[in-house]
Amino acid sequence: FLLYCEGTRFTETKHRISMEVAESKGLPKLKYHLLPRTKGFTTAVQCLRGTVSAVYDVTLNFRGNKNPSLLGILYGKKYEADMCVRRFPLEDIPRDEKEAANWLHKLYQEKDALQEMYNQEGIFPGQQFKPPRRPWTLLNFLFWATVLLSPLFTFGFGVFASGSPLLILAFLGLVGAASFGVRRLIGVTEIEKGSSYGNQEFKKKE
What we know:
Elements: H1 12-24, H2 38-48, E1 54-62, H3 70-74, E2 81-89, H4 97-121, H5 135-162, H6 165-187, H7 200-205
Antiparallel strand pairs: 1-2
Helix pairs in contact: 2-4
């Protein structure tokens, strides 16, 4: 069960507004995160008691200050990441809603300190672990790519083998339109094209 407690993606505008809220509530300001929204977290923790045993906090950074995107992956760009994972037994999280909210705020203050340390030293504290490469992942990808793409390649070969210029142009146009559409859909996921959620200034303009 994945919770993104900040509620929206980080932008400078949203960060400034979030820190104004933190100041008004007497909370320490965060440098690299937005103020977490506690209601969903505290509700989830209460409902999951007796079902799950722990909460895992994950802090992720991409090396070289790169900002990965689905388009970048589609174009074959290589990204390397470091991940800090911490485990918190559920019984260590307060049952009271207000205390659980304070626990979450403290957690994000620690995450901010982790981010600062990573920016300065290029590494997270604690035991380092590098997972081994798994050939089965590649084999699984190749298997499904072969199963799913074989009909398309067979159809394309048949189109070109037919020798019909009209049919070939129609097929190339269809492939080009599909490629353009996929890139447009992926482009919507970029941060600068994200929603206005958390941006009070945008709502005022509306």
